[in-house]
């Protein structure tokens, strides 16, 4: 069994980024990620082919120029795998730029091992990179209110200030987190409300 893992480690390659092509008239042709291209035979056997082809296929998408939008940067989001930048528009509605690819991070020592991190990172190829873009159509068909989503490429742009390095040269989905004029509540706030409502119901019926 030990030799199997040694062989797996030997076939795993550390991803090295390549220069991105230059935008043309506000559009660019790039893949969602090149991390999962050309897997070895052992990678296919133990991790699977998954959606590697979809991740590595160049797609045409608009370049996100924050200077030409009505967005104001709020802060980085709390995601531990995706890069998320919280935005607010001129109507005070909440949006987020969420990276399509994930960067596996963990505080656990076992996941800090570079070989294990490469293995876990390659499992990201098991998810379809553009799945989120289908959510609005499905939700609207079911009569569920949801915000619009748009695919963008974020270049290395000084307009992002302190977040420039985290955002540069990645594919993102811009998500409207507030499709209604009124601001919604967070999951934590909802759970607290459910909890307090249950307590009130029990107290009334004792």
| Elements, N to C (H/E) | HEHHEEEEHHHEHEH
**Major sheet: arrangement of strands:** 3-4-5-7-6
Average residue pLDDT: 82
> Which structural class should the secondary elements be placed in?
alpha+beta
Tally of extended strands? 7
Question: Proportion of β residues?
Answer: 15-25%
The level of helicity is: 25-40%
Tell me the number of structural domains. 1
What kind of oligomer do you see? single chain
Largest sheet: 5 strands, antiparallel
Q: Any idea what the shape is? A: globular
What value does the Rg take, in angstroms?
A: 21 Å
- State the helix count: 8
Euclidean distance between termini CA atoms: 60 Å
Low-confidence stretches: 5-12
Give the helices and strands, then pairings.
Layout: H1 2-11, E1 27-30, H2 41-46, H3 52-56, E2 59-62, E3 72-76, E4 84-88, E5 94-99, H4 109-112, H5 114-122, H6 135-141, E6 149-154, H7 164-167, E7 170-176, H8 187-204
Antiparallel strand pairs: 1-2, 3-4, 4-5, 5-7, 6-7
Can you walk me through this structure?
It is built from eight helices and seven strands, in the order H-E-H-H-E-E-E-E-H-H-H-E-H-E-H. About 4% of the residues have low confidence. With 206 residues, it is of the alpha+beta class. Strands 3-4-5-7-6 form a five-stranded antiparallel sheet, with no helix packed on it. Strand 3 and strand 4 form a beta hairpin. It starts with a helix and ends with a helix. It has one domain. The chain is 31% helix and 18% strand.
């Amino acid at each position: 069994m030990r030799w199997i893992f040694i062989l797996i480690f030997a076939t795993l390659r550390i991803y090295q980024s390549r220069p991105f092509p230059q935008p043309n008239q506000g559009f660019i042709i790039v893949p969602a990620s090149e991390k999962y291209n050309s897997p070895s035979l052992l990678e296919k056997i133990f991790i699977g082919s998954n959606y590697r082809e979809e991740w590595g296929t160049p797609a045409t998408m608009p370049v996100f120029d924050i200077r030409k939008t009505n967005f104001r940067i709020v802060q980085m989001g709390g995601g531990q795998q995706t890069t998320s930048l919280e935005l607010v528009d001129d109507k005070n509605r909440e949006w987020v730029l969420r990276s399509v690819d994930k960067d596996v991070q963990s505080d656990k020592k076992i996941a800090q091992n570079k070989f294990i991190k490469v293995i876990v990172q390659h499992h990201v190829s098991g998810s379809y990179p553009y799945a989120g873009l289908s959510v609005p159509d499905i939700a609207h068909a079911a009569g569920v209110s949801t915000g619009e989503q748009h695919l963008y490429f974020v270049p290395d742009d000084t307009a992002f200030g302190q977040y420039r390095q985290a955002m540069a040269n990645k594919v993102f989905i811009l998500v409207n987190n507030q499709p209604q004029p009124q601001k919604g509540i967070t999951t934590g706030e909802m759970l607290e409300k459910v909890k307090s409502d249950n307590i009130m119901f029990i107290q009334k019926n004792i």
